[in-house]
From TrEMBL:
This is Ribokinase. Requires a divalent cation, most likely magnesium in vivo, as an electrophilic catalyst to aid phosphoryl group transfer. It is the chelate of the metal and the nucleotide that is the actual substrate. The gene is rbsK. The lineage of its organism: Bacteria, Bacillati, Actinomycetota, Actinomycetes, Pseudonocardiales. ATP binds at N187, T224, L225, G226, P227, R228, G229, G255, D256. HAMAP family: Ribokinase (MF_01987). Belongs to the carbohydrate kinase PfkB family. Ribokinase subfamily.
Length: 304
């Protein structure tokens, strides 16, 4: 079967309303923003744009509202060459919205209103089957309903495509979906949560989280560790891939860029650690610019 698409992403699209702040507000406190910007975001859209910008042939399965924000998001995807034939316009919901605060340290905090993302359904996945049938990798993120995630995992299996599962935010998934993840990609907080939910003892060092997560059932695992890079494990190989050096100004969307790059590279035949090395370079570039999608590099920026 020909694989015309490198990466089919299943996930969310949000408009990002981003406030710069000196520091994050404490509970009950109001702080002044130093800047406010509106831009395209959502973990699914971020991943799709990050992959497309690296040259991957990419499609996105998801939903926006039939409003101006949705229009803008589709236009942004189109500008990066992402296939949006199965990115539906939902008449009954607003476009998903993320309220993001970025502190001077570069650390962010985010509140997400799901809007149309909450309507992504197994029927959407069934209608998108021709896309999935032509994909090397189906990359799934968790800002869409669990039944849609399960449908995506089943469709990937039936199509013979590899499943990359970015379990962010963490939800409980059927064991067979976790077992199909190759790789499961989580940050260290998410890793801890999955291990705790499954009653697995936390290793003393975060680099041990990846191996521990294989006890939960994933075939291969990547745990991202912020500036320290990522811990990677697949059958027969475990490695700590160090972070690429960067002067971080805004880490928003770094995890999405990382996950997209891993999905693209494993689809090109890279071993997981090699894919993660690519991803640390791409994500390190992204943290040096403000915003999520605006910060993602082109291939030429990361190949020296
Ligand atoms: P975010 O929620 O900010 O998108 P995340 O919490 O999902 O990110 P992180 O582990 O913080 O995930 O970051 C993902 C990847 O981005 C890391 O594995 C690393 O490669 C890169 N990265 C993040 N922060 C830095 C940094 N300060 N310097 C260099 N690389 C970084």
């Amino acid at each position: 079967m020909s694989r015309e698409l490198d990466v089919v992403v299943v996930g969310s699209l949000n408009v990002d309303l981003t406030a710069g702040v000196h520091r994050h507000p404490r509970q009950g406190e109001t702080v002044r923003a130093t800047a406010l910007t509106t831009g395209p975001g959502g973990k699914g859209a971020n991943q799709a744009v990050a992959a497309a910008r690296l040259g991957a042939r990419t499609a996105l399965i998801g939903r926006v509202g039939a409003d101006a924000h949705g229009q803008d998001l589709l236009a942004a995807l189109g500008a990066d060459g992402v296939e949006t034939a199965r990115t539906l316009r939902d008449e009954s919901a607003a476009t998903g919205t993320a309220l993001i605060n970025v502190a001077e340290t570069g650390e962010n905090s985010i509140v997400v209103a799901a809007g149309a993302n909450a309507h992504v359904s197994p029927d959407d996945l069934a209608a998108a089957r021709p896309l999935i049938d032509s994909a090397r990798v189906v990359s799934v993120v968790l800002e869409v309903p669990v039944d849609a995630v399960c449908a995506a995992a089943r469709a990937a299996r039936d199509a013979g495509a590899r499943l990359a599962l970015n379990l962010s935010p963490v939800v409980d998934l059927p064991a067979e979906v976790l077992a199909a993840a190759d790789p499961l990609i989580v940050n260290e907080h998410e890793a801890r949560e999955v291990l705790q939910r499954n009653g697995v003892q936390l290793p003393g060092e975060e680099v041990g989280y990846a191996e521990a997560l294989r006890q939960v059932g994933a075939r291969s695992v990547v745990v991202t560790l912020g500036p320290r890079g990522a811990a990677v494990t697949e059958p027969g190989h475990a490695e700590h891939v160090p972070g690429a050096p960067a002067d971080a100004v805004d880490t928003t969307g770094a995890g999405d860029a990382f996950a997209a790059t891993v999905a693209w590279r494993v689809g090109q035949g890279d071993a997981l650690a090699e894919a993660a090395r690519w991803a640390t370079r791409v994500a390190a570039r992204s943290v040096q610019q403000p915003g999520a999608q605006p910060s993602y590099p082109k291939l030429a920026d990361v190949v020296s």
